[in-house]
Design the sequence.
């Protein structure tokens, strides 16, 4: 697929020097990710495209351009491409997200709007598409493939079949099918998934994968099924196996999960890195603002020992190939003029960001206005929850008093979202299961979508909080209201705070509300800009820490994958405790 | 674009080991062109696809396959892909061509049927497509873009506009637009060419280029115009510039033009070779039989100093990317099972050739039958030439006796097809221009297509023959009857020999016919198999040498680019002498 110029004949004339170019960037060290070389050059831009590159920056006809930017010997690299991410995870609208990431040099994101799709269905995807229009960056859309993540194991706010996917594939900036998380459905050739994949194959769109810990014959089957990318690679052996198997390995450094180092350790011995890409997956506003976006991921790869040009290629040309875009991700005639000037190739803080040949950020600040726009969906309260009571959060035992053995979802590591199944013996008082010890907590997943009023209850170990109730409507991927709590009273308080404001995150300790992070759009997204949202998010993190979540870099997102039944081995849903690999429910009480 | 399995669900089961695979190739050193590694592995194949790769060749469940081939420690490499070629140049039918190249390990060719298209139009392309069906190799078709090569400068047997290209794009194995030779039409945005390119862009098919000696702003404009590959790169500076500019450089070793060494010398200093591919362009039967096909081109790259894995990647994965085929050119689950076993990575003589998982050649011999088929076009005599006389081959001077200054097409090098414009003073006797010296010859290009009876006459220098007449209906791309001769009498004899037999090549010396190589199908193709054709072709080469063509490796094809008005600077056509870059005719007599 190619991004086409508005008027190719004019572009040809500009290339030939017959009409003036819009811009020439002179005196740069061009980082050529196609050849791996760095050399002096002048770059001529017309109508958003690179019209010509003059080597050796001598003798260029600078008078053939309307504007000259002196690169002052800086490196010129292609604009960075995020191979996989969810804008919703920034908790910002597409427009506010753009304001946040452009100054860091991210000019293209491949975004999967499946968070909002799980809440608002087709309307949610159409909103993300529409709100991403006319921006000084490229927000490409992969169509959510798994809404809900695993049918039958949870109730989300929408359900997508081949017909919905086909309908969405007509949107302008749709480029592929988003992370096919239900990897078992692919591996076992389930009809619904096969028909969705078939729709995309017929349109020649690419299939983004998601295959955590999948290896051996299972991995082979997944690849034969179609999806051939994965951003869920966590250990080095897995990384090497996937790369060797022809998968595009999208090494991820999100706000919660940092995989770049392990992936690089796994693959650093190979000779060709063509199938290695980089992505952020989920980065929240505070992180974007203060740490960075794709430039931070590239930086991280370089710190791990990756050669800078290879790392930059992994965030540009390799990704463009992965997503089948022919003229993006490199600096050459006919390519889109998304360009960054950087002082050095390890820090990657762009002094200039050009999108489609236009200067859009300078020294960390936007230089173009992104006009405010309002959309109807931003005004809708999506919290459809019946009136809750203390009783909804109580686990009733089959005995009045004594002990019971319960199944427990245990986190072995504070920094991983994967879990194990264990059991615990717990006391029962007046028919209610009670907790013992700081490490165990109750969990409730309260369906918040129209037409459902299910609540799944369970016990979690090693989550990290030591007291109080932590609630969130950001809870991948169904985004049901998820609460980790010590007492039903605290749970009720935390839940009601979110129902009132249209969703978000809340923390309660000893009967008082510590903080509410309001996310009124779909219960996922704030309408605030990065700076204000980051402040709000910092307060929320403090509240999280006050509940004991101190053992991780970013406590905000600890809760958001608790109810994601595609991450092995055990997850919660509004229907109960789920064995992810067996696709079965686990009863509350053990034998 | 992906090559799809017939039954994906069954392939998934085979990958999982739930049903037996068709084949397992054990005990091989897998050459992984994606990572650049070589390691021991077993490869499981089902229904033409790689279902699974087991590393370390230990513990593979060999009982899950119906057939086991012991690789005996040999290297397993992907089947070779020819990035650009014309089957017509082998002078064999698609089916006989397949018999010739498969034993050398060429499993896929990207073929441009523009020779036959120039003679027989749409019917010619349909014939090549149909005759390439059901073969144990993949003959992908690029649609001829320039029929005739340069409109207005010659008359061919057909004319293709956007409508013809659109019609042909519906054929099954069409993958792109073939070499866009009329590079000036691209660079200057001529309507006809833009509309042809537009048809292909809309279908997402790739655009094969052709840009000899094009550099600087002209090259930039060509790339902005769309085509982004080139197999016409002859010198090292040109090779580096093209690679840096994002072009796929298809380094060519044809039967006449060997560019691989120069291209490699140009680019050997870069770090990434992703955009370097290899091709044969034009290889005739004798050459294919006794020297090789793509394996010979890869071998040549390795002899120049290219690392073998990179060279193999250039003839497999890189090419698959160039032509937008996602699951071809590597050995990984989900990829097409085109595989070669080779004893060593420098000679590349395959002991086993697997096409779609089926053994199709063993130790240089086909192991499958390619049934003979006949097609109506094979019976048609395409020579439409009026009755010729001596007079048709005489250049008449404006004076009765004395001297005239004529324009001359001069070949500066016996091994290059490019030419220069010079002049010569020649004697005139009885109103007829006469030759002086062995180095000058007459040239006639006699239109042989229905509706035209034009004959272009001129003088050539440095062609290489010292006496006699050499005639050919293989004469790119219009394939008009082209004759280089000393006397009108010899020319007439050589021409008539070809008109009688439906076309081919002939040599006449001192009034006697030395040999006729008959090519009755479109005047381009023999109906003989490689072995018989090679013998015939050897006799023709002897005849060529008898006319003085001794200074080159392969004299057979010296004449075939004499009338190709896209190779700078001067060429002949049936309309006269052509200035290629100016797209103008040059008058016979100089001022």
Sequence:
């Amino acid at each position: 697929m190619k991004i086409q110029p508005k008027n190719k004949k004019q572009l040809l004339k500009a290339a030939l020097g017959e009409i003036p170019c819009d811009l020439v960037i002179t005196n740069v060290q061009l980082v050529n990710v196609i050849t791996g070389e760095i050399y002096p050059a002048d770059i001529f831009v017309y109508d958003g495209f690179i019209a010509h590159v003059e080597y050796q920056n001598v003798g260029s006809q600078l008078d053939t351009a309307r504007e000259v930017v002196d690169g002052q010997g800086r490196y010129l690299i292609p604009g960075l491409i995020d191979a996989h991410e969810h804008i919703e995870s920034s908790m910002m609208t597409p427009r506010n997200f753009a304001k946040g990431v452009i100054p860091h040099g991210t000019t293209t994101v491949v975004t999967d709007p499946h968070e909002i799709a799980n809440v608002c269905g087709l309307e949610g995807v159409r909103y993300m598409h529409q709100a991403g229009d006319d921006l000084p960056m490229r927000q490409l859309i992969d169509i959510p493939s798994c809404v809900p993540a695993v049918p039958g194991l949870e109730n989300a706010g929408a359900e997508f079949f081949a017909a919905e996917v086909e309908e969405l594939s007509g949107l302008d900036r749709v480029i592929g099918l988003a992370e096919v998380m239900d990897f078992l459905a692919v591996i076992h050739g389930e009809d619904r998934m096969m028909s969705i994949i078939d729709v995309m194959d017929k349109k020649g769109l690419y299939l983004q994968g998601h295959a955590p810990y999948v290896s051996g014959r299972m991995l082979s089957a997944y690849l034969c099924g179609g999806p051939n990318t994965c951003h869920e690679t966590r250990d080095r052996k897995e990384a090497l196996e996937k790369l060797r198997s022809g998968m595009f390995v999208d090494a991820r450094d999100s706000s919660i999960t940092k995989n770049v180092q392990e992936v690089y350790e796994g693959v650093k011995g190979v000779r060709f890195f063509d199938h290695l890409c980089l992505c952020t997956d989920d980065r929240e506003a505070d992180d974007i603002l203060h740490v960075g976006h794709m430039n931070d991921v590239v930086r991280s790869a370089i710190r791990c020992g990756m050669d800078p040009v290879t790392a930059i290629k992994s965030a540009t040309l390799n990704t463009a190939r992965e997503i089948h875009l022919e003229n993006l991700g490199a600096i050459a005639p006919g390519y889109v003029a998304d360009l960054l000037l950087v002082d050095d190739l390890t820090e990657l803080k762009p002094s200039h960001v050009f999108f489609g040949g236009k200067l859009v950020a300078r020294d960390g600040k936007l230089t173009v206005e992104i006009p405010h726009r309002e959309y109807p969906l931003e005004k809708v309260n999506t919290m459809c929850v019946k009136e809750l009571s203390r009783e909804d959060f109580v686990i009733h035992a089959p005995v009045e008093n004594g002990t019971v053995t319960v199944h427990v979802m245990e986190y072995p590591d504070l920094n991983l979202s994967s879990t194990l199944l264990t059991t615990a013996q717990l006391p029962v008082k007046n028919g209610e299961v009670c907790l013992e010890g700081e490490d165990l907590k109750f969990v409730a997943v309260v369906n918040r979508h129209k037409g459902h009023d299910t609540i799944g209850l369970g016990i979690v170990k090693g989550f990290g909080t030591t007291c109080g109730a932590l609630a969130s409507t950001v809870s991948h991927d169904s985004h049901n209201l998820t609460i980790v709590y010590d007492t039903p009273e605290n749970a009720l308080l935390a839940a009601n705070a979110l129902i009132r404001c249209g969703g978000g995150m809340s923390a309660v300790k000893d009967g008082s509300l510590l903080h509410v992070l309001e996310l009124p759009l779909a219960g996922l997204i704030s309408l605030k800009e990065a700076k204000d949202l980051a402040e709000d998010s910092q307060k929320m993190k403090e509240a999280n820490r006050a509940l004991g979540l101190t053992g991780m870099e970013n406590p905000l997102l600890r809760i958001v994958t608790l109810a994601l039944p595609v991450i092995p081995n055990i997850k919660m849903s509004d229907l109960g405790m789920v064995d992810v690999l067996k696709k079965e429910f686990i009863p509350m009480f053990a034998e």
In short: The longest strand of chain B covers residues 23-32. The longest helix of chain B spans residues 530-546.
